Amino acid sequence: MNTRLTTDVWVSAYLTRLRLVEIPVFVTRKGDATAGSVLVKLNTLDGNAKAFQRQFDLMSGEREWVVLAEGSEEDVDASLTKQASFDPDLWVLEVEDKQGRHLLDDPSLA
Length: 110
Description:
Blueprint: H1 7-20, E1 25-29, E2 38-43, E3 48-56, E4 63-72, H2 73-85, E5 91-96
Parallel strand pairs: 2-5
Antiparallel strand pairs: 1-5, 2-3, 3-4
């Protein structure tokens, strides 16, 4: 049986995991608590950023994080604004880390 966590529970766990290793993270847009999609913006504090979205990999059957947008922070923000304009349930989290750490590849957050 594959039980999925509600979005708000996953977000809470992700925020806690980042804070445990002292990586600042902020909820910049709160979406639907039960089933909202999550986008994670990684701000490297040098004017650049990446946005990640989770997608289903048909080959492996797993859900994985992939880059939705990357480049200047301004361009990434524009992409996030566009996504939010047609998904009212969307969550956007912003991770700030000069080293580029986001922990999305951490198996404890799967």
